[in-house]
């Protein structure tokens, strides 16, 4: 008789937990609605289609105004902070036979001085 009571209580507990979990999932489900930032370049590669095209006219001549030397290859995309600091990461790659191993590189915070 004690064993039957235990099974009944356990079944009630499992059933109640499932109902509670279902309610939490139904009430907590809220689909995300991503929006573009209110800025001239609101997302990676500019727009929802990731075209990388800017509506602004850029420089007509390719004059280098500054450069920065890193210790490793830069294969990441730069990020520009609100204070115009440019953040970029590099990676050191080591080759053993046909395999490349990437070790930890550096994160650079570059604040260019434009004259």
Description:
With 115 residues, this protein is of the alpha+beta class. Among the domains are: 1-28; 70-115, no CATH class. The chain is 23% helix and 17% strand. The protein has 1 helix and 5 strands; from the N terminus they run αβββββ. A 3-stranded antiparallel β-sheet has the order 1-2-5, with no helix packed on it. Strands 3-4 form a two-stranded antiparallel ribbon. A hairpin with a 2-residue loop joins strand 3 (92-96) and strand 4 (99-103). It starts with a helix and ends in a 5-residue tail after the last strand. 0% of the residues are buried.
Provide a quick synopsis of the model.
This protein is an alpha+beta fold and 115 residues long. Helices cover 23% and strands 17% of the residues.
Structural class: alpha+beta
Mean pLDDT: 77
Major sheet: arrangement of strands: 1-2-5
Radius of gyration: 27 Å
What percentage of the residues does DSSP assign to strands (E)? 15-25%
What's the overall geometry? elongated
Range of helix content: 10-25%
Order of helices and strands: HEEEEE
Low-pLDDT sequence parts: none
Number of strands: 5
Write the layout of secondary structure elements.
Layout (H helix, E strand, L loop, with lengths): L1 H27 L50 E2 L5 E4 L2 E5 L2 E5 L3 E4 L5
Antiparallel strand pairs: 1-2, 2-5, 3-4
């Amino acid at each position: 008789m004690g064993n039957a009571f235990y099974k009944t209580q356990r079944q009630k507990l499992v059933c109640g937990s499932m109902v509670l979990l279902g309610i939490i999932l139904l009430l907590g489900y809220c689909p995300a609605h991503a929006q573009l930032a209110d800025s001239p370049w609101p997302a990676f590669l500019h727009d929802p289609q990731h075209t990388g095209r800017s509506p602004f006219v850029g420089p007509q001549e390719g004059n280098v105004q500054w450069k920065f030397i890193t210790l490793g290859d830069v294969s990441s995309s730069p990020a520009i902070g609100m204070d115009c600091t440019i953040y970029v990461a590099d990676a050191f790659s080591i080759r053993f036979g046909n395999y490349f191993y990437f070790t930890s590189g550096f994160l650079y915070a570059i604040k260019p001085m434009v004259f």
